[in-house]
Design brief:
106 residues, mainly beta, 5-stranded antiparallel sheet, two-stranded antiparallel sheet
């Protein structure tokens, strides 16, 4: 993370540059207790490396070149997300079920 601590159990995806993040990944891994990961079997190409973990912002690299049968060290720093909050909501009109909220469109 941004404090230098390892982030275990994060999902890491390698996505070919030029593809969208929503497309299938060329390879995936889960970080170990030390925050390390390894993705095997990637074809030579340029990939964006994306990291995901609940409570953290999604982070990615701009593009790392992978050569056949090679090994790359890639550092991906996950940043802790701030707690979310709801804004611009008001109680629904009379007659609605208690506890139901509607978006204030003003």
């Amino acid at each position: 993370d941004e404090q230098g601590s390892p982030v275990p159990d994060a999902l890491v995806r390698a996505i070919a540059v030029g593809s969208t993040e929503a497309q299938a990944a060329a390879g995936t891994a889960i970080t170990d207790a030390g925050g390390f990961f390894q993705i095997d079997g990637l074809a030579p190409n340029t990939y964006g490396i994306y990291g995901y973990k609940p409570g953290f912002y999604t982070q990615h690299t701009a593009g790392d070149v992978v050569h056949g049968a090679g090994r790359r060290n890639i550092s991906l720093v996950l940043k802790r997300a701030n707690p979310g909050k709801l804004t611009n909501i008001v109680p629904t009109t009379a007659g609605a079920s208690a506890g139901v909220l509607a978006l204030d469109k003003t």
